[in-house]
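[INFO] parsing input record for DUF8030 domain-containing protein
[DEBUG] input buffer:
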Amino acid sequence: MSSEYEQQRSRLTGEQTGEPSDEPWADLKLTLPHNRSPTAIVSLVECALVELTHEDVGAEFVSTSVAGVKRTQYIAVDDFGQRFQKRYFDERLGWHETTVSRETVREELVNRLTQRPSLGSEVGQNGIVGDQHKFLVMPIRELRVQG
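[DEBUG] output buffer:
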């Protein structure tokens, strides 16, 4: 019998392409725009927070636009999953780090993943996409710490 967490992950994955990964966090990713419901987004964020607390992984939201690349990374700093290191990167300003609560991480991720695409996200001149946003969970060692 599978757990509620496994059932949520199964619903979030949708179609399976290729072989399933042994890593429970491997399918916790999303590209914007998407067609997921707000409830599915909350479930995705909750699953990500569980993985950040129990595995050696971090979450990253990357925003690419004409203004440059911006990265926001979250890494659990305690075994209880209540405090997270937030690392923010802006190509113009560099890196900034702070410690935030679980509630802050949850709220920020839900807000970012439920936002509607802006008018600038349309394909512009020469077929270049204006804004691109993605969220994923990956091993901490793979998170970029340089611009």
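[INFO] The CA atoms of residues 67 and 91 lie 9 Å apart.
[INFO] shutting down worker
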